[in-house]
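Handoff note, outgoing to incoming analyst
You'll be picking up this chain. Sequence as last confirmed:
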Amino acid sequence: LDAWLKEICLQWKENLLTDLENEVALFLTSTEAGAPSSSFSPYDCSSMIGEAVAGKSRAVKYGKFYEIEIGMDVDEAKTPHKQKSLSLIETGTPMSISKSEGKSVIKKNSRYVPLDSYKMVCVIGKGSFGKVLIACRSSNNLNFYSPKKNNKSTSEPVAIKVLSIAEMISRKQATRVDVERQCLEKAESPFIVSLHGAYRTNTHLYFVQDYCAAGELYFHLERNGYFSNKLSRFYAAECVLALEHLHSLGIVYRDLKPENIMLDVNGHIKLVDFGLAKLGVYDVASGTKSFVGTTEYLSPEMINKRGHGLAVDWWALGMVLYEMLAGLPPWYSEDKQEVMNGVLHSPLKFTSKISNPARNLLSGLLQRIPQRRLGSQRGAAEIKEDQYFASINWAYLANKRIKPPFIPKLGNSCDTSYFDDSFTSLCTKINEKVTREEEKLIQQSLHLFQGFQYSNIS
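Most recent structure output, in case you need it:
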């Protein structure tokens, strides 16, 4: 069957995949009698369709169309009368697998790339649930470079975030993983990391995202101590555009901090890590009540646990801008309780490094009452109009027509000079072994990751 198809287009119905415990049928039909039909688990079916998009698997040509039906049981699929429900898709239009709010949908002008097409190159980050690696597509011969050397890659690198399913479930983080995938699927901004694919194996979840070769903003702050007014303004302005886009989608980010602001190869910012984001929030001061985030960047309303909304992101922007200009956030302490007490009660003080226009902006962003906070009346428009950003041409900035003040110096596309050696020295191998207890936990929770797979590669 593999030889039957090199190029295929698929139309996915809203009810494509049933519960993971059930079986679905992939019914293949052709003009020839006795066309095969088979029954697969939904996960196998999803993988097979993905391979079909890549030209590696099963479909049957019918004239200049391909006929495919998903969701029937085998007996029903064999019924001739059901042929009328088959979708005839003209070849030549690239499409790929996706999922949105529990429904399977299609991403146009893109194609499916199987997970095993990627070769893991180097670890660039590690956390409680897994790690982040650089990867390149193995269809190109990748035995050609060391990330530290000045040689050219024939494949554009990506970052792959690998999460342990057992860890996510045991720590009750499964829902947040799905929220992150939904946020990344919805967001389309040059200042937010793009999601190229989401995959699930028996033990891990994989997010394939943009690789930001210049590392975290935090890395550069640590190295330099603080930033110039010009550089701080540039990064803050791009953050404003990223947050404006998220808020227009009803997404409150809730985790703006230097560790989650990445720099790409050209020096532009991209926000990453949407595990704490919340969908369906449109009010500035209400919409959600969960207590999440990093202590130094928590807003007063978050600390008070009285409910919060989009305004928490403008507070965090003020904290990050202050840190870029001064080297530390206001009210900083190693004692978390002292930090929260400062946020709630202590006056905002400025160092001599911070200019008057910056002080005025920070005073507006770090207003303790969310309804009075800059950005709470007219959103990002208020912040864009502030005197501190008077030199910014926002239309040019949105189209990346303003040259970043800092241009990263990279030897090649997989250079890891801007990542900590404690990460890059780690083994790239993903441990697929699990204990019996972990395996049982995973099997009991498969429904949490129904339809997780996603592809959006042009």
